[in-house]
From TrEMBL:
Its cofactor is Zn(2+). This is Lmbe protein. The lineage of its organism: Bacteria, Bacillati, Bacillota, Bacilli, Bacillales. Gene3D superfamilies: LmbE-like. PANTHER family: N-ACETYL-ALPHA-D-GLUCOSAMINYL L-MALATE DEACETYLASE 1, N-ACETYLGLUCOSAMINYL-PHOSPHATIDYLINOSITOL DE-N-ACETYLASE-RELATED. InterPro entries: Bacillithiol_biosynth_BshB1 (IPR023842), GlcNAc_PI_deacetylase-related (IPR003737), LmbE-like_dom_sf (IPR024078). It comes from the Bacteria. Signal peptide: none annotated.
């Protein structure tokens, strides 16, 4: 199998999770020429609205709007995400296939159990993928990404760092609106938390995050380990 080297590999439990949490960041780095890969762990087959087919089409459009290089999916069960060896190996396989510099996953504290489960699975796979003797189905060599960061979906948490997305907020909202089945009430849909001003709530959160760091819009992230500054506190070291 041809090796694909990704700069960013972002995991979500369902299509639209990544867009909600870090769509602006994905668009910003893609626009800068970085290779961004999205991986959805499930097909969201139990979603209250839409179908698997419509969700896949919406996910493809959303990724295209953000400039994502490739979007892939695993076939893990919706509402059946648990910390199993099968799930860990499947995610570790993706990490070894795309060999990312940085990995993103949902923050573990979230009202939706699948988001927390996705976070735990990715954390385990992040470690296991770097073990040479750990076996994955495709038999790719071990790969240790440099960092694992966590984005917020439903929650509002104090971030460890923020990324300025002021110039990419409109593109993020466009990607969310691509999920018409999820965020709009249609003739055959039912009301859910997503159909009641959810995109506006995400925009408000990103605006508040931006205000915290002196920007118009920002996305907040968390990390399990301290960040290392690559420049001096008062400017570049030259």
């Amino acid at each position: 199998m041809e090796t694909v080297k990704a700069d960013i590999l972002a995991f979500g439990a369902h299509a639209d999770d990544i867009e909600i949490g870090m769509g602006g960041t994905a668009a910003k780095y893609a626009a800068a020429g970085k290779k961004v890969i999205f991986c959805d762990l499930t097909k969201a087959e139990l979603s209250s609205n839409g179908t698997v087919a419509s969700r896949l089409a919406e996910a493809k459009e959303a990724a295209s709007l953000l400039g994502v290089y490739e979007r892939v999916g695993l076939d893990l069960p919706d509402r059946g995400l648990f910390l199993t060896e099968e799930a860990i190996r499947a995610v570790a396989e993706m990490i070894r296939r795309y060999r990312p510099t940085v990995i993103f996953a949902p923050y573990e504290k979230d009202r939706h159990p699948d988001h927390g489960a996705c976070s735990r699975i990715v954390q385990e796979a992040f470690f296991s993928a770097g073990i040479r003797k750990y076996q994955t189905p495709g038999h790719e060599g071990a790969h240790k990404a440099s960092r694992l960061y966590f984005y917020m979906i439903n929650g509002f948490h104090h971030p460890d760092f923020c990324i300025d997305i002021s110039n990419f907020m409109d593109r993020k909202k466009q990607s969310l609106r691509a999920y018409e089945s999820q965020f709009e009430i249609g003739a055959h849909s039912v009301a859910t938390p997503l159909t009641n001003g959810y995109i506006e709530a995400v925009e408000a959160r990103d605006r508040l995050m931006g205000k915290e760091v002196g920007r118009t819009f920002a996305e907040g992230f968390l990390t399990n380990v301290p960040l290392v500054l690559e420049q001096d506190l008062i400017g570049d070291l030259e």
